[in-house]
Design a protein that fits this description.
Helices cover 32% and strands 25% of the residues. By secondary structure, it is of the alpha/beta class.
């Protein structure tokens, strides 16, 4: 499930939320990225926060990690008493340590006053690099460093279990090695940007040339995402982390038109709360394909 589908940290009235996804694979529940709104998204999806177990963070930009600490803390106050493992790039452990320090008063008083286990004992942070990340109970996770300057530790993730596979591109400029990494995947969730919307986005944010330069150096156009999907031979391409995701002049037809120049297979345009089935069937919550 795509909990948050927009690229970037800004929020606008009625618009989508930043990056987070819920992956159910082989009976395991996995949260991928923790942008603002991830906790609300999980609750709205019907997930018990007490079932939180595995969290993966692709990189430490705020729209992917801002709500990591609050998600775990909220789950803890909801009754979480079982271990949680957080996998992330270098610096993730520092984030978690500082979050717990910032919340020390609340944590300590709830342990004493409410009889809760120590949240710091429940959470293990495992920092990873390129290559093997996890091989446990049939779930295999591998990572590929992608091109997202100036962030050097940004990783695409491939999740495999029982013959099924899902790949998340993370934030990346057009990066041909990603096609080999995603080879034959059932689903490729790839970030996407529409050039015609960038100028309006830049004008709204006021960052001018610097923001424009960052976007084109660090992110993929929709057509480039299509090229990766075609070269990889995936079964379905999901355009996600949309830039811009909240431009009233841009609709699903515009995204489809841009990606159809390079991708002719099954296509899904992300929106918050959308369920994408691994078996290729239409989503339980009204997936639209183009």
């Amino acid at each position: 499930m795509l909990l948050g589908s927009k690229g970037g940290p800004a929020l606008r009235p009625g618009g989508p939320w930043p990056s987070s996804s819920l992956l159910e694979l082989g009976g395991r529940i996995v949260v991928v990225d923790c942008g603002l709104g991830v906790t609300r998204g999980l609750v709205d999806a019907g997930m018990s926060l007490r079932a939180l177990e595995l969290i993966f963070v692709t990189h430490l930009h705020s729209d992917h990690v801002l709500e990591l600490g609050p998600l775990i803390h909220t789950a803890w106050t909801a009754g979480l008493a079982t271990p949680v493992t957080v996998f992330g790039p270098s610096g993730t452990g520092h984030y978690w340590q500082r979050f717990c320090q910032a919340m020390e008063f609340d944590i300590e008083i709830r342990i004493v006053d409410e009889g809760r286990p120590d949240i710091r004992d429940l959470v293990t942070v495992t920092e990873f690099g390129e290559g093997a990340v996890l091989d446990e109970r049939g779930l295999v996770v591998t990572a590929l460093r992608v091109d997202h300057p100036p962030v050097t530790d940004c990783f695409a993730l491939r999740f495999e279990h029982g013959g099924g596979s899902v790949v998340f591109s993370a934030d990346t400029a057009f990066f041909p090695p990603l096609a080999d990494f995603a080879r034959g995947a059932d689903i490729l969730v790839h970030e996407a940007m529409l050039e015609e919307g960038v100028e309006r986005l830049v004008a709204r944010t006021g960052n001018g040339a610097r923001l424009r330069e960052h976007l084109f150096a660090s992110h993929s156009l929709a057509g480039e995402a299509g090229r990766i999907a075609s070269d990889a031979g995936v079964r379905r391409l999901v355009l996600n982390h949309l830039i811009p995701a909240d431009d009233p002049e841009i609709g699903e037809a515009d995204w489809a038109a841009a990606v159809r120049k390079t991708w002719s297979g099954d296509l899904t345009i992300a929106r918050d709360g959308l369920v994408v089935q691994l078996d290729g069937a239409k989503a339980a919550r009204g997936e639209e394909t183009a």
